[in-house]
Amino acid sequence: MPYNTVNQLPEYIRKYTNVIQRQWMHVFNTVYEKTHSDKRAMMAANSILKKRFKKKESHTDYFNYLTDKFLKNLKG
């Protein structure tokens, strides 16, 4: 079942930022359209969370990581 809005997403996804929610929903819907499998779509969408937070424990850590990376690029 594809999702139409972020309000329909599972509870554990709604705790993340709007950007992550939309990304998760996009991946889920795309895989579901191609495979018609809830299980495969869920696995693919959840892999987004694993990739985003592989080495980071929270959104704050991830934000700090991105900020540090951006500032290092400015320095040279």
Question: Can you give me a brief rundown of this structure?
Answer:
The protein is an all-alpha fold and 76 residues long.
Write up what this structure looks like.
The chain is mostly helical and 76 residues long. 71% of the residues lie in helices and 0% in strands. It is built from 4 helices and no strands. It has helices spanning 11-14, 18-35, 38-52, 59-75. Helix 2 (18-35) packs antiparallel against helix 3. The mean pLDDT is 82.
Write the layout of secondary structure elements.
Layout (H helix, E strand, L loop, with lengths): L10 H4 L3 H18 L2 H15 L6 H17 L1
Helix pairs in contact: 2-3
List keywords for this structure.
single chain, 76 residues, mainly alpha, 4 helices, elongated
Report the sheet with the most strands, covering strand number, pairing sense and barrel closure. none
Which structural class should the secondary elements be placed in?
A: mainly alpha
Q: How far apart lie the N and C ends?
A: 47 Å
Per DSSP E runs of 2 or more residues, the count of β-strands stands at 0
Task: Average the pLDDT over all residues and give the rounded result.
Answer: 82
Assign a percent range to the helix content: over 70%
Strand content: under 5%
Q: Rg from C-alpha positions?
A: 15 Å
- Reading the helices and strands in chain order gives HHHH
